[in-house]
Amino acid sequence: MSTSRAPPVFLLVLLPFFASTAFISSVNGAAHMTPETSAICPTCPYFLPTPREVTTPEGIPANLTCGVRLLADRKVSWIRRKDLHVLTTGDFTYTTANKFRALHLPGSPYWSLQVEKPTVDDSGIYECQVSTQPKIFRRFTLNVVVPSAAITGTREMFMKAGSDINITCIVKGAIRGAPVTWYHVLPRPPYTEEEVEEINAGGRGGVQVVTDKHAGTSWLLVTHATWRDAGNYTCAPVHATPATVSVHVLDEEVPAGLHHDLHPSEGRSSITSPPCSTLLTVLLLVLQRVAAVNEHGHWCSFCLLLGITSCLSLTAVYTAAGETWTAAQDLSSTWSVWRL
């Protein structure tokens, strides 16, 4: 007659400890199923591998997905860590904010927290928690970014007529694969309405747009540029802030109506400097004669100072317009005449 032997007492004591390791302590909140833990606690829930970090553009819905096996009658809750606010439990949404919603298909081990129209303030840590004892949880990071485009180089480009225009646009934070559209604001005479055209291969020959949607980079190439290719070029990705560069095409004869816009420096060449030195000279000669016969010489000095101030102000205005006349030259000439 055979008798079964009872297990050692120390194994009975340590068995609850081994079973609890299936959950991993709430310090790290991660429950991973391994052959050892599966043998010790075959009914313990555990997390499935899912993406732990999600990045989305502002305004585009984002889903945080938590996978849990062997859930049984336990509940899955989503908690926002920054204020410990319980957002959802099971299929029920606790928050009054309409942007948060629980997503789950019956029989599926995946429980998702959907964030509709997220803003930058929604960025942070979200916790998927299972109602075990002790609780197990897994944390997820949501990054909400404001997509934007940036054109490499300066905001103004000066090109020689006949050369090639090459513009590079880098898109940051946009959805991978989002299309990029280029626009061209044509050069127009002053005080006329702007004309905007979408750039595509069907336009004039020599224009090419290449976009690497995976890298988020778009290139615009315009060969043999003419004055008609001048103007503003805008890189406009979907759901992103656009970027603009101004292109000037130089050294080519252009229509008279556009001459002022394309070559603004030439429009000021006809401005002449006021004959400030001549005016001061005449004024000083007159005041010198009056002072010789008038005992109120201080009034003459006051008038002289007033005349110099007025002339300096006039000279400063023309200097701002691009002329090279300076007040120092006027005063130097005036002082020479006064000493005579």
CATH homologous superfamily heading of the largest domain: Immunoglobulins
Name the beta content range: 25-35%
Number of helices: 6
CATH class type of the largest domain = Mainly Beta
Rg computed from alpha carbons, rounded to a whole number of angstroms: 39 Å
Low-confidence stretches: 9-28, 256-274, 317-340
Helix content: 10-25%
The residue-averaged pLDDT reads: 75
Give the SSE string.
HHEEEEEEEEEEEEEEEEEEEHHHH
Provide an overview of this structure.
The chain is α+β, with helices and mostly antiparallel strands and 340 residues long. The chain has 3 domains: 25-145, Immunoglobulins (Immunoglobulin-like); 148-268, Immunoglobulin-like, CATH 2.60.40.10; 276-339. It has helices at residues 9-20, 35-40, 256-262, 276-293, 297-320, 327-339; strands at 46-48, 53-57, 62-69, 76-80, 85-89, 92-93, 100-103, 110-115, 124-130, 136-145, 148-151, 156-160, 165-172, 180-185, 196-199, 207-212, 217-222, 231-237, 243-250. The strands form 4 sheets. A 6-stranded mixed sheet has the order 2-10-9-4-5-6, with no helix packed on it. A 5-stranded mixed sheet has the order 12-19-18-14-15, with no helix packed on it. The chain has a 4-stranded antiparallel sheet with strand order 1-3-8-7, with no helix packed on it. Strand 16 and strand 17 (217-222) form a beta hairpin. Helix 4 (276-293) packs antiparallel against helix 5. Mean pLDDT is 75; it is low at 9-28, 256-274 and 317-340.
